[in-house]
Amino acid sequence: MSIAIRDVTKRFGSFAALDGVSVDVATGSLTALLGPSGSGKSTLLRVIAGLEMPDSGSVAIADEDVTRRSPQDRGVGFVFQHYAAFKHMTVWENVAFGLKIRHRPRVEVRARVAELLALVQLEGLERRYPAQLSGGQRQRMGLARALAVDPHVLLLDEPFGALDARVRTELRAWLRRLHDETRTTTVIVTHDQEEAMEVADEVVVMNRGRIEQAAGPRDLYERPANEFVMSFVGQVNRIGDAFVRPHDLELVLDAGASTREAMVQRIVHLGFEVQVELVRDDGAPLSVRLTRDEEERLELVRGDIVHVRPIRATTFS
Amino acid sequence: MAARLGLRLVALFYLAAILVAPLGLVCYRTCAHDAGAAWAALHAHATVHAFRVTLVAVAIAVPVNAVFGVVCALAIVRGRFPGRGFLNAFVDLPLALSPVVVGAALLLLYGRNGWLPGVHVLFSLRGIVLATTFVSLPFVAREVVPTLREIGDEQEQAAHTLGASGWQTFWRVTLPSIRWAVVYGVVLTTARCLGEYGAVAVVSGNIEGRTQTATLAVQDAYENLDRAGAYAISLALALGAVLVLVAMSLVRPREARS
Predict the structure, then answer these.
(1) Is A212 helix (H, G, I), strand (E, B) or coil?
(2) Same domain? B138 vs B209
(3) Calpha distance A232→A213 (Å, rounded)
(4) Which of A43, A106, B101, B174 has an alpha carbon within 20 to 30 A of A170's alpha carbon?
């Protein structure tokens, strides 16, 4: 189901967490709300869920105005960063909670919970308590619990933020597959641009309670609307008025027409890629990304003087 | 090593001197010397009645304060209203006030020349219940407040998004999460109610066979030089308190393990 947010403003005291925000989320899409902490992304998600009331503006889910409706009547599934597992209930009872609240017949509850536990790969752990699960398992239980009631929209608030890097990457890929299977309209909040780009169809970049840009991952990276988006979505070098991505800089050994001199400070091997940190003659730092082959061909060592040429640069008026 | 041993000895000695020795002596005196007299004292009509009065006060004050304590704790932790801090401080008042002062205050309010003289609570069971409820008011709230703070409100929010009403959330999520705090608060409240003396002494009138509680009966027996009776009733009261504590510690670990 689609979500339409119109001119939503939310203040906490004198702090404007959301400042006239309008966003559209298409039916069946997976949208990421991306931004630094304090940008208002979590507040926006909580406004959609009804956990926060906006001071002004409106929220519609499936073309129905739900602005004044309580969370229990919105048909949303919410997944919390710190799981919010019901600690006194088993995995089975956690997942069954929403169904039992709705007084569904026992046979149906049993079938649905079994189906969901299979979906999130927690079969056999039904009788465990949340305290006996790993972080990743707890969050998958949280997802199953939220999906149990067939929500119109699934809302995830930094769902993998409390997990270690490897589990996070695994769950990210798994979430994408899950979404492709269920096609539930999903909104995920994250401060990790890599996560947003990897998992979402549409990325909404937020900053200081406002929307900076909403676009697909590729557009966002290639055609950022402004300086903030450009520097938040991936690394960036500033050369005069122009912004250049580290992989859009070429390193050459001889000076040329459009080159600038720089000194190698540090060489970081990242696997397939190599990041070279340089200092320009005017003291400004530069980052350049090369493939391993390119770096080997140049035979760079610390202290070398090289010449840098931008291949592609972006300027904002 | 020696330091730790010393610390343990100090703690044990302290416990022995303050707690175990007096209780043990009561036990010893009752059982060894005047067992027959003690038994007789416990069966006396006035004693039985005194215990009944105490139990009635407990039976009313404990549930009332359990409900009040939970509601109060929810208001203090989850509520968003002006005067929350005031309520938080106010709940502790019965702990800070001497029970005798509480009794005097009740006397001032409901006494013959008091502000509400039409309400007959003095020298009656009502007065005893009122005084007992007042002095045992903070325990449940005090136990529940930190637990509520610790569990946070995310589980409650999750329940809401899953379709639970406020009432359903309270019964299925909040209350089970704080149940041990409530139980512990109830145990402390019960113990406090069983042992209440000061406030009850002032408002009850201490009429034997009518408005005398078990603690008042102990005092009476002692003043009438009926040592056996005083020790016997004391022992029975202490046993009651110990039983409540033991019952709780028996149930608790089994639940906590699961």
Answers:
(1) strand
(2) yes
(3) 11
(4) A43
Asked if the Cβ–Cβ distance from A97 to B161 is below 8 Å, we say no
Instruction: State the ipTM, two decimals.
Output: 0.86
Across the A:B interface, residue pairs with CB atoms under 8 Å apart total 65
Note whether residue B63 is domain-resident.
Answer: yes
Q: Do B162 and A98 touch (CB under 8 A)?
A: yes
Which chain A residues are within 8 Å of B163, Cβ to Cβ? Answer: 72-73, 98, 101-102, 149
Classified as helix, coil or strand, A258 is: coil
Please enumerate residues of B whose Cβ is less than 8 A from a Cβ of A: 151, 154-155, 157-165, 168, 172-173, 176-177, 179, 258
- DSSP-H helix ranges across chain A: 41-49, 91-101, 106-119, 135-147, 165-182, 193-199, 217-222, 227-232, 292-298
Q: Do A188 and A248 fall into the same domain?
A: no
For residue B170, give the CATH number of its domain: 1.10.3720.10
Tokens of A158: 């930094």
Euclidean distance between CA atoms A261 and B148, whole angstroms: 62
Strands A314-315 and A242-244: antiparallel
Q: Mean pLDDT in each 10-residue stretch from start to end of chain B (258 residues)?
A: 86 86 82 78 87 93 95 91 86 88 86 70 85 92 93 94 94 94 91 89 84 89 86 87 82 56
Q: How far apart are CA A100 and CA A9, in angstroms?
A: 35
Cβ–Cβ gap B154/A84 under 8 Å: yes
Instruction: Give residue for tokens 């997990």.
Output: A163
Strand duo A210-215 + A237-239: pairing? unpaired
B246 in the same domain as B138: yes
Chain B nearest C-alpha distance from A75 (Å): 8
pTM, 2 dp: 0.83
Tell me if A21 sits within 8 A of A211, measured CB to CB. yes
Considering only CB atoms, B155 lies closest to which of A49, A51, A86, namely: A86
